[in-house]
Write a sequence for this structure.
């Protein structure tokens, strides 16, 4: 009997996929990273399935790669050769939604936008909204501590995670955190699991915080600038004026051209940056008008303002198209540096210089209010690896981000993709401590080995 | 040579206090808990002092009890017999305050309110404001993950902590986190240290997030109710209506009487609860008027509304007097349960019942918007231990809080005081994991042993 047969026997019928072609379809995330061939895929439908899977994995020393929707951008869910893939995508129940306590208890396979929609029926919202929120899962968002467009106002996924149910590497079940808004009993295990990319345990349920949804639709502006630097200055002015945008996105010319080639948005020559901002405050229209004035004062050539939901959707729609538009241009190395907001223009300049020096096409969007930039390095489809020029340009971008007081990854995570740069940011003491923590939870090293730390 | 002499030699002159009477004055926090006699006190003035102290402690296997201002309410900074007390109160530099990036880099001994005042000079604020914020330190706030009055809107201390410099038990220096608003490189060590009560390392510097200070003074209301239950219903209505108060405090009759006895606030008969709320939003006056209406609809007998800073200070001043007023009544066992907001009235009922059943005077204030209650059990000054009736009443309160989906401690921490109840909330798997993490950072067990977990 092969080891995998013992797992088939331990789980209800239909849970284990061993057909290599089907298994391979669960091996990738949204990066170019070539996965290894997994030994199989478990389609978990319950916590008990996860417990049985991890017990089997420990007994047979088989690495386990947990995954949600596979929409990650760092290779954290990429299967490694001979690993078992553990998909949580079928655990889709919203077990509880309490309007009075403003919390929900959800399984990891719930699609992020579905939870938000369920909350809106009660006048609430689930705030974290990665660009992938229509396809990504809460479990994946928790595993990567996903950010998103609204996090400039509402924080990242960790800020909405109150408590977790986690299956540990040896099959024991750990409950972390709480149902209350505050709590300080013991160490913050919830925060530790969020962003740990499946290397410490497998999340099988989460208690998350909901928030009051804004009463009125948000007011929105889109401003065009002749230079990224001018747009960056407008961002600084808007944040310093206390406008508290609920969204503040920056797109460069290369990104706008990619979108225009695809969807014909009527991009004018001379527009080298677009800034899109939103306020969902009760005085949002006034806030957006203030932001509009600050854009004009900082050199915007054109500003459109809207408070109708349809026009707003058009303005925001440009931003939501950005990643797909780039995927049409070639394979993408998507980076995710985050810098202190005041050096955003300088960081943009460094990205442009790196692209020019290494002759690499780079399209950049930024969650500008957070100082979080996504330079996307385009290269030829079909290559197993980005060419040396792309790695060299990426090297420069990371090095400069760290010099400017920034970080390698604002919201996508380390996964496989950023491990080559990890030592630039995390010194030996940090890495030793991280591996010490990993060993507490996973002494056999079966949980997503080679990722995150 | 005594072991302590080696420490005296290793540090600059004047850093080590060995006089037993002076040392004893650094042995207590604000609880009644009787400390042991420390072997000495280090008055650290730099990170290097902390490094030398921990190296010495490791070599001689001497437990170290870090402390800030000693204003804690759970015994986390209480000296144990034979321990070395490590005071960070002299490390008071605000090393950097960047208005553009909305961050500050501070030493642990900075008084919380001093940082807030320094930030206000730039139109910013440091949001976390435990009631003790005029005497407590940032280091102590971080060690306990302190909450406060404003955290109903701005979150707890952890939500403002971006990065830390920590001296580990063996004297190595660890840097956690970042200067950026977002970041997901590796595990969340910053969050892990916050709230760990000095059991994992000693914080010697913190990068904290500042926020835009509201442009106008807050609008404030104070409402009187005939019953706590009615006041609790008003809280629920206010939160459900999305009023987003920046402060929402509830005081019971026993607390109001204690304040009235001391400061003669003109407490009327029949007033059994007071609710004080604030909005610092740009439309704060309108928000407070909405809150006022909801109080009246829920049975308030009187509501005062103010937007003048002086009147506001008078209304809030009542709340700020609460703890001192109770200390005049006797020794205090201050508890800190937190429950889902919807069961706040039920929890209040359980506290009243426990007090009546065991004939214990209990005064309760609550950060009502968070569901965080501070029942203060009064007993005779001079007793070494609270009488059995107090422990029995506290037992009931904790048990009921957990039954209602709550937690033992919302913001004060476990320290020594709540360890007797810890097993009620944290199961064996949680405790084993916590102790495993502790061992990674402190294999010799010299850092504040017997606290927190």
């Amino acid at each position: 009997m092969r080891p995998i047969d013992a797992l088939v026997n331990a789980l209800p019928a239909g849970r284990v996929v061993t057909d290599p072609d089907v298994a391979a379809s669960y091996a990738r995330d949204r990066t170019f990273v070539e996965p290894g061939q997994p030994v199989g895929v478990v389609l978990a439908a319950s916590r008990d399935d996860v417990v049985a899977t991890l017990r089997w994995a420990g007994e047979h020393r088989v690495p386990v790669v947990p995954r949600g929707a596979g929409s990650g951008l760092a290779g954290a869910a990429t299967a490694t050769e001979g690993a078992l893939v553990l998909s949580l995508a079928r655990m889709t129940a919203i077990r509880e939604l309490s309007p009075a306590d403003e919390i929900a208890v959800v399984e990891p396979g719930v699609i992020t936008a579905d939870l938000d929609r369920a909350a809106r029926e009660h006048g609430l919202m689930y705030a974290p909204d990665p660009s992938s929120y229509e396809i990504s899962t809460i479990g994946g968002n928790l595993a990567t501590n996903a950010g998103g467009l609204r996090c400039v106002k509402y924080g990242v996924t960790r800020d909405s995670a109150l408590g977790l149910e986690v299956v540990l590497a040896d099959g024991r079940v750990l409950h972390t955190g709480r149902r209350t808004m505050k709590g300080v009993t013991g160490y913050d295990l919830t925060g530790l699991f969020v962003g740990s990319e499946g290397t410490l345990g497998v999340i099988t349920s989460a208690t998350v915080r909901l928030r009051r949804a804004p009463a009125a639709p948000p007011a929105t502006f889109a401003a065009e600038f002749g230079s990224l630097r001018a747009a960056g200055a407008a961002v600084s002015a808007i944040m310093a004026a206390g406008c508290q945008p609920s969204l503040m996105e920056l797109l460069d010319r290369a990104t706008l051209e990619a979108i225009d080639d695809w969807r014909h948005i009527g991009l004018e020559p001379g527009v080298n940056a677009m800034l899109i901002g939103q306020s969902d405050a009760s005085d949002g229209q006034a806030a957006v008008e203030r932001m509009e004035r600050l854009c004009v004062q900082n050199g915007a050539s054109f500003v459109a303002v809207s408070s109708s939901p349809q026009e707003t959707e058009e303005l925001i729609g440009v931003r939501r198209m950005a990643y797909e538009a780039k995927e049409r241009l070639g394979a993408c190395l998507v980076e995710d540096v985050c810098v202190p907001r005041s050096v955003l223009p300088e960081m943009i300049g460094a990205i442009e210089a790196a692209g020019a020096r290494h002759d690499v096409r780079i399209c950049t969007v930024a969650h500008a209010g957070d100082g979080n930039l996504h330079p996307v390095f385009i290269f030829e489809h079909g290559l197993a690896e980005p060419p040396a020029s792309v790695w060299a340009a990426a090297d420069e971008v990371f090095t400069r981000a760290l010099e400017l007081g920034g970080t390698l990854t604002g919201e996508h995570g380390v996964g496989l993709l950023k491990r080559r740069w990890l030592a630039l940011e995390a010194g030996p003491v940090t890495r030793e401590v991280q591996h010490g923590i990993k060993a507490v939870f996973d002494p056999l090293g079966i949980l997503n080995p080679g990722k995150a730390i």
